[in-house]
TrEMBL record:
A GO biological-process term: L-proline catabolic process to L-glutamate
Endpoints of the signal sequence: none
The name this protein goes by in its record: Proline dehydrogenase
Species the sequence originates in: Oncorhynchus tshawytscha (Chinook salmon)
GO cellular component, one term: mitochondrial matrix
Chain ranges of the Proline dehydrogenase domain: 310-549
Length: 580
């Protein structure tokens, strides 16, 4: 692991270029200096630099950040709507939001593109709910299932139940949007919003990205239930692995002896000997006499009739209980509509030449989200990477998740697409685990998360090196992580022109990373929010909260902005305008 100061500011990366007269690859050294303010800010005029300095400075004042929502409401009353919007566009809105609609964002997108930076479009309109309203909506969407379950025994684990004290899923979350279920019509409207975003991405840039959230497309209750099924099934595999003395290994290293596995399943009372024998008959499982986690998962994928009837032992109580409860007719319809919406979005992404990134969410939803994303990848990533799954590296199981999904893509021959992030729900996840009483899923500290991020990243880079079917988005504002990536690409001889390794940062943040990378030929993207001023206020509120910690922790971006402003003034560039 590299420490924060172990790499030089100027990082050398190998760019493999093809000579016009020969097919041999030549290596050209490129120095990327993240302290070179001329390169970092050449796309900004002086007014934009001053705005960045003002906004970042304001984000360091606790009172302004804590009361930002109230202060914006007060400003609207005092100045009136028109003046308020003008003030916002001169400050926070202008810094973090590209414009109000598809047309108004085009100039910024084209300017960034001219300086080597692409776009991930994100329509950032959010519901402005009170905490009480959010809790009410969250609990109401779980009500039908809870009523149904009172007719029998509720075997659900507490992690996968709704809890009123955590009903407002925005609590402790500043860097991710939250959707609350109202009805199917609203899910359709949110799908249309994503479709418009995909179309705008296709029309505004070449090889653009668009981002979606699964909780916007259906009842989150389904994601909770499906996640619990997947986690219980995996935990059952771990129990069987422990019986064969194979606990504590990496996920893919656990290979269960098939005959011993059949005996264990029979002894546990999961099924009779003939039934269990039939599960594996006709499946391409265990040709070597062993079953690994991917083989095990395929049982629940391919044999839905098995999963509907299957009982498995509860690890805590030892009692047999159903893996999956039956859905009502209405629940079945809602689940199908959710899957149909996902399918429509993926097809539109293909038609518009846009890649789709599925955002990660809370751990009680994420197993289901990842599985649905994998199903899309199996269908749409056959010829090139269209669908990207997001992996949160603050999770203890992040490496297992990446390695298992990667192996599935190898076996089935489709393109693996991953976006690596540190994670957005840490405080909420920790608080929920402690209060409700289950194991904290988060790595113990920031350094452990850094190690996990770099471990996952290096694993994907090695796969790219050996098999060009893997692709990764390094979504990070951490300069050391970007340097680490460039060093590894250098060592492996990975070319940025192959478009296998992408970099991503938020609009209005870390330009000193994004623009030097883009101008050196690396695929780099800004996450570009847009929407009407009044309707993106919740987004801007979260940006202010996120930037408080970011700006207090590092003075680097502000010092670089001051450095460039002084350089221009000394060189007589008072009216500097970007040329492109």
């Amino acid at each position: 692991m590299l420490s924060k100061n172990s790499l030089p500011v100027a990082v050398q990366a190998d760019l493999i270029i093809q000579s016009k007269n020969t097919t041999d690859a030549q290596t050209q050294k490129i120095e990327i200096d993240f302290g070179n303010t001329h390169e970092a800010y050449k796309s900004k005029d002086n007014i934009e630099l001053l705005r960045s300095l003002l906004v970042f400075k304001l984000c360091t004042f606790d009172f302004l950040v804590d009361k930002n929502k109230e202060l914006m409401d007060l400003s609207k009353k005092v100045f009136g709507q028109r003046l308020f919007e003008r003030l916002m566009k001169m400050t926070f809105y202008g810094q973090f939001v590209a414009g109000e609609d598809h047309n108004s964002i085009k100039p910024l997108i084209h300017k960034n593109q001219a300086f080597g930076v692409g776009s991930v479009l994100d329509y950032s309109v959010e519901e402005d709910l009170t905490q009480e309203e959010a809790e009410k909506k969250e609990m109401e969407q779980h009500y039908v299932s809870c009523c149904f379950l009172t007719l029998g025994v509720d075997h659900r684990e507490k992690k996968y139940k709704a809890h009123r004290q955590f009903g407002d899923r925005r609590g402790g979350v500043v860097s991710a949007r939250t959707y609350f279920y109202a009805d199917e019509a609203k899910c359709d409207n949110q799908m249309e919003t994503f479709l418009n975003c995909i179309k705008a991405s296709g029309g505004a840039s070449v090889d653009g990205f668009s981002a979606i959230k699964m909780t916007a497309l259906g009842r989150p209750q389904f994601l909770l239930q499906f996640s619990e099924v997947l986690v219980k099934w995996r935990r059952f595999f771990n129990l069987l692995a422990a019986q064969q003395g194979k606990s504590g290994m990496d996920a893919l290293e656990q290979k269960l002896e098939l005959e011993q596995l059949k005996e264990s399943l029979t002894q546990l009372g999961v099924g009779n000997k003939d039934d269990i024998e039939n599960w594996f008959t006709g499946e391409k499982l265990g040709p070597s006499g062993t079953i690994d986690l991917l083989d095990w998962n395929s049982l629940i994928n391919d044999r839905t009739s098995i999963s509907n009837l299957l009982v498995i032992p509860n690890v805590e109580t030892g009692q047999l209980e159903p893996l999956l409860r039956k859905f009502t007719v209405e629940e079945e319809k809602q689940m199908k509509r959710m899957l149909q919406r996902v399918d429509v979005l993926a097809k539109h992404a293909v038609e518009n030449g846009v890649r789709l990134m599925v955002d990660a969410e809370q751990t009680y939803f994420q197993p289901a989200i990842s599985r649905l994303t994998l199903e899309m990848q199996r269908i749409f990533n056959r010829e090139k990477p269209i669908i990207f799954n997001t992996y949160q590296c603050y999770l203890k199981e992040a490496y297992d998740n990446v390695s298992v999904d990667m192996e599935l893509s190898r076996r089935e021959g489709w393109y693996f697409g991953a976006k690596l992030v540190r994670g957005a729900y840490m405080y909420q996840e920790r608080s929920r685990a402690e209060e409700i009483g289950y194991e904290d899923p988060i790595n113990p500290d920031y350094e452990a998360t850094n190690r996990m991020y770099h471990k996952c990243l290096e694993f994907v880079l090695e796969e790219i090196n050996h098999n060009r079917k893997a692709n990764v988005m390094v979504a990070s504002h951490n300069e050391d992580t970007v340097k680490f990536t460039l060093e590894k690409m250098n060592q492996m001889g990975l070319s940025p022109t192959e478009n296998k390794v992408y970099f991503g940062q938020l609009l209005g943040m870390c330009d000193q990373i994004s623009f030097p990378l883009g101008q050196a030929g690396f695929p780099v993207y800004k996450y570009v929010p847009y929407g009407p001023v009044n309707e993106v206020i919740p987004y801007l509120s979260r940006r202010a909260l996120e930037n408080r910690g970011f700006m207090k922790g590092s003075q680097r971006e502000r010092s670089l902005l001051w450095k460039e402003l002084k350089r221009r003034l000394l060189n007589g560039q008072i009216l500097y305008k970007p040329v492109y």
